[in-house]
């Protein structure tokens, strides 16, 4: 980490792109009755979703992901090299990521473009040139979240005592089922280094899942003391990134 920070400090950063009535006829009473019955039945079905089936589907979907658009942000969590980032990540044809991040350099946070290629982290300097700053692992490596065994799927699998708290929630503009539970410090360290999580051994966690099968993850928020870690996930197409 020291060597990586030293190399990062040597790169001059410039500001980068900031982290992203038609009228109708009156229904007959029979139609209104049928519509009301349908709404009531649908609401009942949503209320009685099986949380274990829901989480298992989400875990399987996360393990099958090969590309995604990830948006990470944090508030009130100290000692983070990457305070926030937005990145396209892929496992195919090779493991890679590209996007922009808010990185801590010499005590200050700066926004910059980055890529991870062949396990190395490349940062764009003030001249627009990408500079190799060393291994991405342990610094800024969003593609690791797609790892079927050790990525976001493992975070979902580690949610303890899950309970559906809102079957009609929203994650941004997306309809979602909100699940609450707890997460161990070891599981939360998939998102950020364990050293940034303090002495606590578990944290409250909220997960937003798509209400339609296969119930992909839309958002996860881990509460860390007075702060939080937020990860949003959207679908994306595979892409290739060449070594700069």
TrEMBL record:
**According to its UniProt record, what is one Pfam family this protein matches?**
LppX_LprAFG
Q: Keywords in UniProt for this one?
A: Cell membrane, Lipoprotein, Membrane, Palmitate, Signal
Taxonomic superkingdom: Bacteria
A GO cellular component term found in this entry reads:
cell envelope
Q: What is its main location?
A: other
The family note in this entry says:
Belongs to the LppX/LprAFG lipoprotein family.
What InterPro entries does the entry give?
LolA/LolB/LppX, LppX/LprAFG
- Record has S-adenosyl-L-methionine as a keyword: no
The signal peptide here is 1-23
Where would you find this protein in the cell? Cell envelope
User: Does the keyword field hold Signal?
Assistant: yes
> What protein does this entry describe?
Lipoprotein, 27 kDa
């Amino acid at each position: 980490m020291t060597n990586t920070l030293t190399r990062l400090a040597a790169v001059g950063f410039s500001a980068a792109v900031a982290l992203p009535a038609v009228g109708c006829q009156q229904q007959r009473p029979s139609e209104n009755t049928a519509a009301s019955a349908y709404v009531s039945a649908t609401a009942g079905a949503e209320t009685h979703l099986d949380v274990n089936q829901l989480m298992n589907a989400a875990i399987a979907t996360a393990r099958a992901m090969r590309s995604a658009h990830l948006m990470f942000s944090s508030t009130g969590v100290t000692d983070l090299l990457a305070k926030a980032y937005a990145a396209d990540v892929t496992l195919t044809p090779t493991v890679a990521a590209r996007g922009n991040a808010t990185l801590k350099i010499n005590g200050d946070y700066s926004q910059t473009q980055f890529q991870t290629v062949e396990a190395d982290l490349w940062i764009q300097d003030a001249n627009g040139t990408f500079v190799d700053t060393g291994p991405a692992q342990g610094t800024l490596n969003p593609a690791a979240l797609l790892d079927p065994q050790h990525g976001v799927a493992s975070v979902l699998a580690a949610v303890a005592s899950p309970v559906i708290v809102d079957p009609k929630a929203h994650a941004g503009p997306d309809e979602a089922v909100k699940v609450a539970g707890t997460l161990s410090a070891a599981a939360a360290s998939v998102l950020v280094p364990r050293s940034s999580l303090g002495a606590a051994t578990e944290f409250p966690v909220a997960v937003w899942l798509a209400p339609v099968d296969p119930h992909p993850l839309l958002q996860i928020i881990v509460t860390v003391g007075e702060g939080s870690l937020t990860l949003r996930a959207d679908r994306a197409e595979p892409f290739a990134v060449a070594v700069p």
